[in-house]
Design a protein that fits this description.
Strand content: 5-15%
Distance between the termini: 61 Å
Largest sheet: 7 strands, parallel
Shape: globular
Structural class: alpha/beta
Number of helices: 43
Number of strands: 42
Strand order of the largest sheet: 8-9-7-10-11-6-12
Length: 1322
């Protein structure tokens, strides 16, 4: 369990610790210090410091230092870079962690690690007064490692922060499975208990984890009692009656301690009172009253918090669990909320339940979760990584994982034997006939009014109801189809999986099978129907009758699925009970054919039987009954923990404790094989635990054989974490069994994609999910898959394959099934159309329904493949995957990245020559969290040497007539320059899919700029190359070599003007055409400051409302990997906006440091008659007046920042965000109206005959974009502008005041309008 994650040298029983003992326990203090650790000893204690001390770490940009120093020589030895998977041509490096660099203490029992991105994010500095109320033994005897103490410390710090809405801030304990999160939760509870906060809530996923929760507290020596809320056998107030007595029995007279409950119990209620807080009708109400009716300040821990991830924006589409978790947080605003899960969110939308993190809400940059979600999703995977980075920088997230050094991942492919192939083909043919019959059934039943008793509803209502009914049945059909073929595939893997298990057992390992489904619902339904007659005759209980049912073989799960579908959803009986002849004629032949099909038995039962039965295999599932072999017969019996002969454990235990007993039998070596499904995929430990090494028994290495992957990436990660945990003797091995069936990619690809998203969202790195190395080839749910699908459909429709037909295995060799692509396309097209898959993407592209716009197109295609015969689906997927790889290669060369983030280290798929960090600095620190926002400047060398160009020409040779070296004479230069034209690989395959035409596949490589798709602003094609001279002779190639080398060397320190001997307009500043380019990046804590810097990042100035819209709409993400393999992820800043961005962030820091002074000045500004909407106008007049006081009416102001700085020193504005925006808008409007101009570092006031020059905007173009009312208003303002331009200021003022009075009346009338509409009216 979670308690076994760290060694436990000594265990104190809660019964032997009095309150006096706890009060005398010396409390440890965590203190900030500049240099040396703080030696804090208890009275008379001459040992090592009792707890962690804090040393200030240098704030760095988001960079990875594989050998950064730690707090001890031992930890330094452990911080050895570990090489992992290869991405984008660079090795992914992880630094091993044994000790914290912030908090001192004992090393962790196993090596942990962080992703390259997160490794470089600095944690905020701890305050000097922070105190942990824990005894010194916690550190001295290694009950908590320093890494666990680090989590406890930052969680305590975070809990002392309050959000703008008045709620206490929460903490996300996102460490990977097996890192010891349970011990951290127990430490937090004990810390609060010693502070006098005595009531806490622990919500988890399973009642089986209650034992682990109690042990975590006991292992720390905490005398805190734990009770299951389920002990309260009835609803009612916990402060009186029987409920009070139960709590006093388990928690003592004060009823203080920890209440443990599951998520299913959290949502339980009497009928019709699901959301009430009344303890008489809901469990939530009982918990709420016991916790102080919203006034409790204890810990509410959501263990395995991912259970609440499905909290959608709309009430009708979210789960009860998600809504209850959110309701509990909002009802207990002062409680300390901890989210503990290794898989917090697979996608951004899954974060909605984390209401206490302070990433959205009133007074925050994102007022609603929907705004936060849109902003992050715009950034793609890099946006998700940025969220994790910002959370760690603010001290609200821990996301370490166990090191995978020594862990082996492999994929075992199953080749189907003849019987399995024939079995699958027969099932596919049956489902094709079932689809045709089901389509007919839907059409005929839709028009048959007799199903409704002959009383049809009115036409509009009938159409609406029929549409919903049809959609529901179609969804049921396709979901049954998926589950049917998934079970077929799992059954086909059983012989191979059994062989792998026997080999692993022979090699001295213990084996864990991971599956997902048990087919218990259908099995129990069948057994109940079989035993119903006997039970009614004898009057026995149904469960007793079930145990009397015998059989000759294991039931077939796939067969029972189809039987259930036909009986329930293709019924031929009306509600009155009468038969419908045409429906019976459709369904009965299908039922008879199904009975004759050769379908495999339930895979779970077969697997257990093949490996020795229940006495040899520990089954940890959620089913209550199973078929067991008794002699030659099979009996359907209640599941118990059947032990081998001579075992000391009880042979039969209570049903609720079966999984725990089976777990103990496996962990102690009484059983060498275990099978887990969803019910045992979270929380439990099956690793080779050191604590079981006793009495001569040594736990064996673990091998997990994954026979069936779950649908979700987070659940797959939870399963992997059962055998890879802290305190293990041996690193485990993972073997994923996959059939050669192309349709299985449907399931594996979905999980792989979710693992990528999960790594980006929870670990700050899309590549941090441990299984991606083995599963990476299966991810086709991306833009490359969409391109390949459109190209495949076009090839099938046209009958011609744009690639090489000879490369397709189905069209060559002795075993080929088709003579040509045209013959194959005809058969495949007919089959796909027959099972409702349309090929016409080309026609639907104009209406936005192409595979590129339809996120379900690839899943739909892979679903339909499941219903095809083995040879046909294999051939189709072979063609699809060939096109997929061509698309991926083409995009790699062109540099088009799938997640929307610019890769600075790649230039059109080619690694740049060099990328180095030139400078970095901390430009802002949040006042409440200490989180740092960093500015990083990188230098990128884009140059390509002659040797590299020749190598590129050799590798990229495609036989295109235009590829090769060229010479051309640029204007104004006596000499010539050389370029290399390359053909984009397989570009002709995707010409139609991408809607392009012509020679779009050509790229140009230049010595100073690298690879590009355009030359001189034009696409590279035959027309643009006419003025170039192709180098086809040895002499011309030598000339090209000399020209290439000359420009390559000259471009290192010169712009294009210097390279060509021309005069440069900005000597010393111009970098046009230089090999070296500068990029400016903001990293670290970005999200909390994004609102303030968004306008500075935008080239065109915006109003406040437009800035807020910009924040929700765009986040220019970049990602870079330096030459030292350091990863930088952040937001790009334009060179001309760097000064403004840095000024804004530094202003925010100063603003937080001088809040009082700002409030005083701001109150004076608010008292001004021009406050509010007139603030910008007031500042415009102020700026004009200041300019008039300068000689020549020019001031040394390069931008609005310097204007603000000048006015701030004059005491007229502050660093408050409102003043920053107001000055920025004032300067922008003065420039737009031609009142001032900024040139050569000066701002000048423009005047003509004593009057400011006002440029009249293009009102005609503006009026064309607004409503008639707005156009009329704009026309009147146009008259005002014209009067002002003509010098008739009095007339202009009168008309302006008249319009303003009318606008004021409009504003008053629209005061009750929604904010967006009101903003438009204003």
């Amino acid at each position: 369990g979670k308690g076994s994650d760290v060694p436990t040298p000594r265990v104190h029983s809660a019964n032997h610790r009095s309150d006096t003992d706890r009060q005398r326990a010396w409390c440890s203090r965590v203190q900030a210090t500049q240099l040396d650790p703080c030696d804090l000893r208890g009275p008379g204690d001459e040992r090592a410091p009792c707890c962690a001390s804090v040393s200030n770490c240098k704030d760095l940009a988001v960079r990875f230092h594989p050998t950064s120093p730690s707090s001890s020589p031992e930890a330094q030895k452990e911080r050895v870079p570990q090489k992992d998977a290869t991405i984008a041509g660079t090795e992914r490096l992880y630094a091993g962690l044994r000790e914290s660099t912030v908090v001192s203490g004992q090393p962790h029992p196993d090596v942990l690690c962080e992703s390259p991105v997160m490794q470089g994010v600095s944690l905020p500095v701890l305050p000097s007064g922070l105190q942990l109320e824990l005894p010194s033994q916690v550190v001295d005897e290694a009950w908590l490692s320093s890494l666990q103490l680090e989590c406890v410390t930052y969680a305590v710090k975070r809990f002392e922060t309050f959000l703008p809405n008045g709620c206490r801030a929460g903490y996300c304990l996102g460490d990977g499975t097996g890192c010891g999160k349970g011990r951290v939760i127990a430490a937090l509870i004990w810390h609060l208990w010693n502070r006098g906060i005595r009531r806490h809530v622990w919500v988890s996923i399973s009642a089986d984890l209650l034992k682990d929760a109690a042990r975590d507290l006991e292992d720390l020596g905490a005398g805190v009692a734990v009770v299951n809320l389920g002990q309260l056998k009835s609803y009612g107030s916990p402060e009186k009656g029987s409920c009070k007595k139960v709590l006093e029995k388990h928690l003592g007279c004060g009823r203080d301690g920890v209440i443990f409950l599951t998520y299913s119990m959290l949502i339980s209620a009497k009928g019709g009172h699901s959301w009430s807080l009344d303890p008489e009708v809901t469990r939530m109400g009982q918990l709420f009253e016991w916790f102080g009716k919203g006034k409790g300040e204890g810990l509410i821990c959501f263990d395995e918090a991912h259970k609440a991830k499905n909290l959608a924006e709309h009430v009708f589409t979210c789960t009860k669990t998600g809504r209850r978790v959110l309701q509990l947080q909002r009802a207990c605003s002062r409680a300390r909320v901890l989210y503990s899960t290794a898989t917090a969110a697979t996608e951004v939308k899954h974060m909605a339940y984390m209401d206490r993190l302070g990433l959205w809400g009133p007074g925050l940059p994102y007022s609603q979760f929907a705004d936060f979600k849109k902003a992050v999703e715009r950034g793609g995977l890099s946006g998700m990584e940025l969220v994790a980075m910002s959370m760690k920088a603010q001290g609200m997230l821990s996301c370490k994982t166990l090191s995978f050094h020594g862990v082996d991942f492999s994929v075992s492919r199953v080749k189907l034997h003849k019987q399995a192939t024939e079995q699958y083909d027969a099932a596919a043919a049956f489902w094709q006939r079932l689809w045709l019959a089901f389509s007919t059934y839907l059409d005929r039943r839709e028009g048959d009014t007799s199903w409704n008793g002959g009383c049809p509803a009115p036409a509009p209502q009938r159409r609406k109801r029929t549409s919903r009914w049809r959609a529901l049945l179609l969804g049921l059909f396709w979901s049954t189809q998926q589950r049917f073929f998934k079970q077929l595939q799992v059954a086909a893997k059983v012989p191979t999986a059994v062989g792998l298990a026997k080999k692993a057992l022979k090699d001295g390992n213990a084996v864990v099978f991971s599956m997902w489904s048990t087919a218990e619902a259908r099995t129990r339904e069948r057994m109940l129907s079989t035993s119903k007659a006997d039970a009614s005759k004898e009057g026995s209980d149904s469960d007793d009758a079930l145990e009397d049912v015998n059989g000759e073989g294991f039931l077939s799960g796939p067969r029972m699925m189809v039987e259930h579908f036909l009986e329930r959803h293709m019924t031929y009986h009306r509600p009155s009970g009468s038969e419908v002849r045409w429906a019976k004629a459709l369904v009965q032949p299908l039922q008879k054919e199904l009975a004759t099909l050769d379908l495999p038995p339930n895979p779970l039962d077969t697997l257990i039987d093949e490996l020795g039965g229940p006495t040899k295999v520990a089954e940890m599932t959620g089913r209550s009954h199973r078929q067991e072999r008794v002699g030659r017969n099979l009996e359907y019996v209640k599941r118990t923990c059947s032990m081998p002969k001579g075992a000391s454990a009880s042979a039969v235990v209570d049903a609720e404790q079966v999984n725990l007993q089976e777990q103990l039998a496996f962990q102690t070596g009484q059983k060498q094989v275990a099978v887990i499904t969803e019910a045992a995929s979270a929380g439990i430990s099956l690793h080779s635990d050191r604590r079981y090494k006793q009495n001569g028994y040594v736990p064996k290495p673990r091998v997990m054989i994954t026979v069936e992957l779950p649908w979700a990436g987070d659940k797959a990660k939870q399963q992997f974490g059962r055998i890879h945990r802290s305190n293990q003797l041996f690193p485990p091995s993972f073997q994923l069994v996959i059939t050669e069936l192309a349709g299985e990619v449907r399931f594996v690809s979905a999980v792989t994609r979710r693992l990528i998203l999960l790594g980006a969202m929870t670990k700050g790195d899309r590549s941090s999910s441990e299984a991606l190395d083995a599963l990476g080839d299966f991810d086709v749910h991306n833009r490359h898959g969409a391109y390949a699908l459109e190209a495949l459909c076009e090839c099938l429709r046209s009958g011609s394959f744009r690639g090489s037909e000879g490369d397709l295995l189905c069209l060559k060799g002795a075993g080929r099934q088709w003579s040509s692509w045209a013959a194959f396309a005809k058969d495949a097209s007919n089959k796909l159309k027959a099972i409702d898959f349309k090929l016409g993407f080309a026609e639907r592209r104009q209406s936005g329904q192409s595979a590129l716009q339809d996120p379900r197109a690839i899943s739909r295609f892979l679903n339909r493949l499941l219903m095809l015969e083995v040879h046909l689906q294999k051939a189709l997927f072979e063609a699809f995957f060939m096109l997929y790889r061509a698309a991926a290669e083409a995009d790699q060369v062109s540099g088009e990245y799938a997640d929307g983030a610019e890769q600075l280290h790649l230039l059109h798929g080619r690694r740049v020559r060099s990328l180095k960090v030139k400078s970095q600095e901390v430009v802002h620190k949040a006042a409440d969290t200490g989180a740092a926002t960093n500015y990083v400047q990188v230098h990128i060398d884009r140059g390509v040497s002659w040797e590299e160009a020749q190598e590129a020409a050799r590798k990229s040779a495609r036989g295109h007539p235009l590829e090769g070296f060229y010479l051309y004479s640029p204007p104004g230069k006596a000499g010539k320059e050389a370029v290399l034209v390359l053909a984009r690989p397989e570009s002709d395959l995707f010409e139609n899919a991408q809607g392009s035409s012509g020679n779009c596949g050509l790229l140009v490589l230049r010595p100073h700029l690298g690879l590009s798709k355009r030359f001189a602003g034009k696409p590279v094609n035959a027309a643009s190359l006419q003025q170039f001279k192709k180098c086809s002779t040895a002499a011309s190639k030598h000339e090209a070599k000399m020209a290439w080398q000359q420009q390559f060397n000259a471009s290192l320190n010169n712009c294009i003007h210097g390279q060509r001997g021309a005069e440069c307009p900005e000597p010393g500043k111009c970098c046009l055409g230089s090999r070296i380019s500068e990029e400016h990046i903001l990293t670290g804590n970005i999200l909390s400051t994004w609102l303030q810097v968004a306008s500075s990042l935008n080239a065109q100035r915006q109003t406040n409302d437009e800035v807020e819209h910009l924040v929700q709409r765009r986040m220019p993400m970049v990602r870079a990997v330096t030459d030292e393999h350091e990863v930088i992820v952040g937001v790009a800043v334009q060179p001309d906006a760097v000064e403004e961005v840095k000024y804004v962030l530094q202003a925010l820091t100063a603003s937080a440091a001088s809040t009082t002074a700002i409030q005083e000045v701001s109150s004076k500004a608010q008292a001004s008659p021009l406050a509010g909407n007139g603030r910008s106008m007031d500042l415009r007049n102020m700026i004009v007046a200041e300019l008039k006081s300068f000689p020549s009416k020019s001031a040394p102001w390069r931008n609005w920042c310097q204007v603000h700085d000048y006015l701030r020193h004059a005491g007229k504005v502050t660093f408050a965000p409102d003043d920053l925006f107001a000055v920025q808008n004032a300067v922008t409007m003065l420039q737009n109206f031609g009142t001032v101009q900024i040139d050569k570092g000066k701002m000048s006031l423009l005047e003509r005959e004593g009057q400011p020059v006002v440029q009249v905007p293009d009102f005609q173009a503006m009026m064309a974009k607004v409503s008639p009312e707005g156009a009329d208003m704009m026309k009147r303002w146009q008259d005002v502008m014209q009067l002002a331009k003509d010098g008739k200021s009095e007339d202009a003022g009168k008309l302006a005041r008249s319009i303003a009075m009318g606008g004021a009346r409009t504003q008053a009338a629209s005061a009750s309008s929604p904010p967006q509409k009101r903003a438009k009216l204003e």
